Amino acid sequence: MKIRIAISYLIIWMLLLTISSYGQRADYNAANYQIEQGLSQNTINCILQDSRGIIWIGTQDGLNKYDGSSFFVYRHNPLDEQSISSNHIADLCEDANGNLWISTLYGLNKMNIKKEKFTSFFYRPDDPYSIESNDIRSCLPDRNGTVWVKTKNGFGSLDPINNKYIRHEIAFNPFTNSSEYSNFSIIEDHQNYLWVASKDGVFRFDKQSESILTFQHNDQNRSSLSHNQVWQTYQTKDSILWIATEQGLNRFDAKKKQFDSFYFDIKELDSPDNFYTCILEDDEGILWLGSASGLKYFNRKTNQIKRLRGQGELIERLQKERITSLTQGSSSLIWIGTWQGVVKFDKKERKINLYNTNETGDMTITGRDISALLLDRNGLLWIGSRSHGLDIIDRKKGTIINYSMDNKQYPLPSNTVFFLYQDSKDRIWVSIAKNLFIYNPKKHKFELAGEKIAPEYTEIFVDNR
Predict the structure, then answer these.
(1) H/E/C letters for each residue in the chain?
(2) In whole angstroms, how large is the CA radius of gyration of the chain?
(3) Tens digits of per-residue pLDDT, 64-93?
(4) Are 337 and 57 in contact (CB under 8 A)?
């Protein structure tokens, strides 16, 4: 199902930046303005520009399509089996036929772009050729059309012609994830090896022999991988493999089978400035790095990692954000995913645009860690966050009410909101911490709908009965 979103409180910030790279400097002018189109959610897991130039953005609340002027959002519709299987998007990739493949927390999806319909692949206990887990972390269509899939429980390949999935059994399972959700990547290098990132190092998979070569950190070897928690593997145009880890950037020497490691802060290895989540080589050959503390770039002449420089409060705020993904747009555009929205960086026009859901006119929402959005039938905008409770915005009256644990007038049992839903009787259902509540508009309170459970409710389904 395709939903067109128009969020009036979307702000684009264009920041004053000065970037130094390869001895060159570029000055970026500042201004700010509003647009009507908005994202479904601020937490960005992945970004992809397809062969048609369309930008696809995976969030924890839907798949967003940006055509250059407006956003469209695809969400799961329980009454439509050809809708996307889950709203929590982990990874995006495109095959040679222009089909979009979407990894989600509940199933693998193939999207027919022309028909805007999805084919979903699920784990089925009675089918040995089904995917081994519905929790899909990443996927990669290779040059032969095979789709390689990394799930929470393992690794395998899908033949999209006969829809058969082959599980590749290995002696131990390197593909398990840490407690923090992440979408560790898969790439295919110029020698047709698959490189898979994991919490236990990086693994090279030979498709012909089905053998795995493991690369891990070794305290006694300075040429080993700098850290075992690997977030992305990336190959630049010169066929060099780069690896982003929780503690340093690594360059792989294929002949010696060893690594050169680079840090922003060599004196403090555990610094968030050394925590790299993603890599992008732009059309000029500049290597951009997403980190747990803003955007950086690597100068290959000096082998130094530099911070993106700028002036003003907004660029300072951006540099404190966690970068989740990077992708090249047109020749001058770089799209940057963060936990606060999507940043569009236009080097040619010297502009940086921040697409988010943080502000509405003069009204500022309480939390930026958005977890749920709902526009009810009365036009009220409900915004749930992971740590700041729930905001209800009346855009006609220009008012905003925050429900939280510290608000005696508008109390909330917990500041952690997971899900919002309005049923056919106009009741608002809210998943808060590990309970399910129904909003009582007369008392302005939330009433418990069921017994305390674990784990938390993250989605609500109401059938047609």
Answers:
(1) CEEECECCCCEEEECEEEEEECCEEEEECCEEEECCECCCCCCEEEEEECCCCCEEEEECCEEEEECCCCEEEECCCCCCCCCCCCCCEEEEEECCCCCEEEEECCEEEEEECCCCEEEEECCCCCCCCCCCCCCEEEEEECCCCCEEEEECCCEEEEECCCCEEEECCCCCCCCCCCCCCCCCCEEECCCCCEEEEECCEEEEEECCCCEEEEECCCCCCCCCCCCCCEEEEEECCCCCEEEEECCEEEEEECCCCEEEEECCCCCCCCCHHHCEEEEEECCCCCEEEEECCEEEEEECCCCEEEECEEECHHHHHHCCCCEEEEEECCCCEEEEEECCEEEEEECCCCEEEEECCCEECCEECCCCCEEEEEECCCCEEEEEECCCCEEEEECCCCEEEEEECCCCCCECCCCCEEEEEECCCCCEEEEECCEEEEEECCCCEEEECCCCCCCCCCCCCCCCC
(2) 23
(3) 998 877 788 899 988 888 999 999 999 999
(4) yes
Least Cα distance to 184 among 213, 145, 155 occurs for: 155
Q: How far apart are CA 226 and CA 235, in angstroms?
A: 18
- Beta bridge partner(s), residue 165: 158
Residue from 239, 222, 157 nearest 196 by CA: 157
- Distance, in Å, from the CA atom of 65 to the CA atom of 49, rounded to the nearest integer, reads 10
Q: Rounded to a whole number, what is the distance in angstroms from the first to the last CA of the chain?
A: 21
Burial class (CB in 10 A: 0-12, 13-18, 19+), 420: buried
Backbone angles phi, psi at 448, to 5 degrees: -65, 130
Token pair in block for residue 186: 């898969």
Q: Give the burial class of 183: count Cβ atoms within 10 A of its Cβ; 0-12 exposed, 13-18 middle, 19 or more buried.
A: buried
Structure token digits, residue 61: 């609340």
Q: Is the pTM of this model over 0.85?
A: no
| Residue pLDDT, tens place only, 95-136 | 998 999 999 999 999 999 888 999 999 999 899 899 988 999
The phi, psi pair for 425, rounded to 5°, reads -95, 15
Q: Select from 200, 153, 152, 151 the least CA-distant residue to 174.
A: 200
245 in Cβ contact with 227 (< 8 Å):
yes
CA dist 462 and 77 (Å) reads 11
Residue bearing the bigger pLDDT, 383 or 156: 156
CA atoms within 13 A on the CB side of 248: 22
Closest CA to 455 of 440, 438, 439, 433: 433
